[in-house]
Design goal:
- Keywords: ATP-binding, Kinase, Nucleotide-binding, Transferase.
- The protein is an alpha/beta fold.
- It folds into two domains: 6-122 and 303-316, ATPase, nucleotide binding domain (Nucleotidyltransferase, domain 5); 132-298, Nucleotidyltransferase, domain 5.
- The chain contains ten helices and twelve strands.
- The chain has helices at residues 42-59, 99-107, 116-127, 186-190, 192-204, 219-227, 231-255, 271-284, 287-290, 304-316; strands at residues 6-12, 16-23, 28-35, 67-74, 77-78, 85-87, 111-115, 136-141, 145-151, 154-155, 259-263, 294-297.
- The strands form three sheets. It has a five-stranded mixed β-sheet, with helices on both faces. It has a five-stranded mixed β-sheet with strand order 10-9-8-11-12.
- The chain is globular and about 60 Å long.
- The mean pLDDT is 92.
Length: 321
């Protein structure tokens, strides 16, 4: 019998740090979010994460002794031992942070560190859109583009724990420079950052949009304007969907999963994004590859990362999930 039914799930995003108190069935008791202090030094970042965990526990009105453990989902590369954040393209100062040890030492609880998209993928497999399938690929569409792969009900991490970096699949050999140092990555074209960059380029080249003169443009503003019929916004989302369609076609041809799940803030574009994705995959993927692959949006939404991180902790402890 468990002494506690609560896990802290942490989603360390490029824009926001999110935390939640999650039960052993994947339900969220309490959640909290704060802006990521991405330009600070390693110590400041570590302290911010520790404070977020403590504040989330307090906010849920439970005690630290009520916590079974802590699951951490981090963007970028995690070392083979699953202890250290090695590198994150969109968080340039997040290098070689031994966050698992830091968190375990502070709270005296079991802790697991997983790539954030892997964690989100596991959340969808555990209690989300993929709970009835054995294989899925998940793309997290936010500041960057993350990826997670589940094969035969197991996360696929690769030989060195760095598999599923789908955002850094090259789809244009001489394309724009990516934050990872390469050129033409999926992330350059299909992330929120990439979408905003292309939108600004169109405005600079004379395109007329209802957002012109609106100050700092965000992907959400582009989505909202597209829903209102803004042509430039619609064109940018359409183009983003085509790039994602190419990406998903490649995934289908390599892995042939039962399901591909799209998550993150950009999923808010809904059918405006999904339409071109489906058109491209239908045109370009082998029929045998796409006919049984469902392309869906996340069921867990913004909670996918925290629920998945908690589920990874439970799986590590061989309790459930």
């Amino acid at each position: 019998m468990l002494l506690s039914n609560w896990i802290v799930g942490i989603d360390l995003g490029g824009t926001n740090l999110k935390a939640g108190i999650v039960d052993t069935d994947g339900g969220v008791l309490h959640r909290l979010s704060t802006k990521t202090d991405s330009d600070s030094d390693t110590q400041t970042i570590s302290n911010q994460i520790l404070e977020l965990i403590a504040e989330t526990i307090r906010g849920a009105q439970i005690k630290e002794s009520d916590i079974l453990g802590i699951g951490l989902g981090s963007p970028g590369l995690v070392d083979k031992a699953g202890e250290t954040i090695l590198f994150s393209p969109n968080l340039p100062r997040w290098r070689n942070i031994p966050i698992k040890h830091i968190v375990s030492e502070r709270f005296s609880k079991p802790c697991v560190l997983e790539n954030d998209a892997n964690a989100a993928a596991w959340g969808e497999k555990w209690v989300g859109a993929g709970k009835k399938v054995k294989s899925l690929v998940m793309l997290t569409l936010g500041t960057g583009v993350g990826g997670g792969i589940v094969i035969d009900n197991k996360l696929w991490r690769g030989a060195n724990n760095v598999a599923a970096e789908i955002g850094h699949m090259v789809i244009q050999i001489d394309g724009p420079l990516c934050n990872c140092g390469n050129r033409g990555c999926v992330e350059v074209f299909a992330s929120a950052t990439g979408m905003v960059r292309r939108f600004k380029e169109l405005l600079d080249n004379g395109a007329l949009s209802s957002l012109k003169g609106s100050g700092e443009i965000t992907a959400r503003m582009i989505n909202d304007a597209a829903i209102q019929g803004d042509k430039v916004s619609l064109d940018v989302i359409e183009e983003t969907g085509r790039y994602l369609g190419i990406t998903l076609t490649n995934i289908m041809h390599v892995l042939n999963p039962e399901m591909i799940v799209l998550a993150g803030g950009m999923a808010g574009a809904g059918e405006l994004l999904m339409g071109p994705i489906r058109r491209v995959t239908t045109q370009r993927a082998f029929e045998a590859s796409y006919q049984d692959t469902k392309i869906v949006f996340s069921e867990l939404g913004n909670d996918a990362g925290i629920i998945g991180a908690a589920g990874c902790l439970l799986k590590e402890l061989e309790i459930s999930a």
